[in-house]
Amino acid sequence: MAKISVPDEQQQWNENDDFNASVASLAHWAFLIGFVVPFASLIIPLVLYNTTGKDDPFVKANAKEALNLFLFSIIMGFVFALLILVLIGIPLLILLGLYMLVFPIIAAIQTMSAKQGDTPYRYPVIFRILQ
Fold it and tell me: What are phi and psi of 29, to 5 degrees?
């Protein structure tokens, strides 16, 4: 059988595409890192948005979505903390914590498997402050 060779430009494009998908998924993994390192869930997507995001729109869109999730979690955390006074806030805070644990994992895995031209992952049910 004949061996098919891939041109160097095409191989470089695929390696660069995989690297950008991995960098974009780091914005979502930052929420799990944030459980260990304080403010990592804010700092990592913000740094990616302002550095790599200037050159790659896929990384920029994923970092922006991660920042939207961070802002959503902070705002809803305050609202749910106030609702503890009427006892509904306790289960809502638990649900928010589960959401913040599960959906960033799903987003990071889907972002890592994304190919060139795929749309970035969008978190369900959140409001987006950054457009």
Answer: -65, -20
Query: What token pair was written down for 28?
Result: 């979502």
Domain ranges within the chain, ordered by starting residue: 25-112
Could you give the CA distance from residue 50 to residue 88 in angstroms, rounded to a whole number?
38
Measured distance CA(113)–CA(121) in Å, rounded:
11
Tens-place pLDDT, residues 1-40: 554 444 444 444 456 677 888 888 999 999 999 889 989 9
Greatest C-alpha distance within the chain: 72
What value, to the nearest 5°, has the Cα angle with vertex 58 and ends 56 and 63? 100
